[in-house]
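Researcher: Here's a chain I'd like modeled. Treat it as a single chain, no partners, no ligands.
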Amino acid sequence: MKSDAELEKISAAQRIAEEAFDHMLGFIRPGMTEKQVQLELDFYMLSHGAEALSFETIAVAGKKGSMPHGVPGDNVIQPGDFLTMDYGAVVDGYHSDMTRTVAVGKPSKKQIEVYNTVLEAQLAGLAALHDGVTGFDADKASRDVIEQAGYGKYFGHGTGHGVGVEIHEAPRLSPKSKATLRTGNVVTVEPGIYLPGEFGVRIEDMAVITPDGHTGLTHCEKKLIVL
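Model: Modeled as a single isolated chain. Structure tokens:
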């Protein structure tokens, strides 16, 4: 359970991450490498108030986007690629965590379908959050949408986790979770679909649990952005 002071620090860290996202929308273009995107994201956060990075920034495009924890490298971003950025900032010892997937050039119908499925799943996971919901049921809300769309076997990780002084804290949102979410918990909701050899999509927000629902801590656009 996070105090108001703790929530303010997490929110401050998230504001830096969101400003970085807005900056990146004007920076990313075809022909860049994943590493260039990662370095720009990191530099922006560290030069705009972050005392550290929440974790090693993920920036993966095209086929590499099908790896949930892919490492940015010399892979060149091509027109029509999805680019997934998973990153966060640290302020006064408290972490933020967000993921956005954007299209660099015109996406295919399949890319759009998968993106919208993940978005629907992410919104369903958020809608399930409230004091007393189990981590299992919160995960199931997202997972059911993906399974019903026929992509269940391509979602291989938990839907979310707690965030605070550690980037991964209790409670967990997963099929194995025995946790019960309580007012003041800060959790992520981050379902994804990863199609081997094709592309991947993940969308992640943070939210704080309230007695009758949740308050979102992430305010970036979630509809598919085409750069």
